[in-house]
Amino acid sequence: MRLYVGCAMWTHPDWQEKPLPPAERLRTYASWCNAVEGNTTFYATPQRRTVESWARQTDPDFRFVMKLPRTITHDRRLTGVDEEMAAFLDALEPLGRRLHALWVQLPASFTQLPALADLLDALPSHYRCAVEVRHPVFFENPRATAQLEAVLEAAGAEWIPFDTTVLFEQPATSPAEYEARAKKPHNPRRTRALTRYPIVRYHGRDDPAATVAGWQPWIDTTVAWLREGRSPTIFIHTPDNASSRTLARRFHADVRARLPDLDPLPDPLPTDPMTLF
């Protein structure tokens, strides 16, 4: 059994007693978590030498979930993107098996399922894909839900839920929570996995105790997935993400308390004096 946990980034000012050199930041993060969201690739395709550095800093069992560039998903809305996609895949090649999934995060106005089906069908079969939709119709209209699931299942792709239930269930209590609520989607929680490799993005609150209390349904779901033979990846977010790295390890520990045979996380390098629990 393998559970991957991680955060939205691999460096944060609150995670180190003193700043680390760039070549050590990912290496240090990878001693705390075994997966990471590749959000930076949304803004630009990285240089291949940069990706080679990411590979050098991580063990082969570490996992990246890499977001497609916005030129593909938002500017061109998946149409006429062969050249951009080829350049992106070439840049990521040094990751090898560390590349867990290509993350297709679609804009909130996107409903063009034929374009999504064409994109997924055109990708080489050895790439695993996971799609995050934000348009409310896919959560509120059973027919639209079924149509999206059919497209994803035909391509062997996963549906990434972004669970912000806890973030929105109580009024914001800090500037960071106000900002998060302004930027994050607010759709119903979804817990159905389509593949052996479900991916979840969970967003908590400033208060670690509220974040832990809110993820209890995901503990149950994750345990069930693991018992079914799936290998889930859970990403933990908080409004300012200062505590997300420690909380990701806490999530893994809470699951492992119920499944003692679960592979443990690595022992973290001692760079963080912060203790939440």
From TrEMBL:
Gene3D superfamilies reported in the protein's UniProt record = Protein of unknown function UPF0759
Q: Which domain of life is it from?
A: Bacteria
Q: Which InterPro entries match?
A: DUF72, UPF0759_sf
Tell me where the signal peptide lies. none
Q: What is this protein called?
A: DUF72 domain-containing protein
Q: Which organism is it from?
A: Nocardia yunnanensis
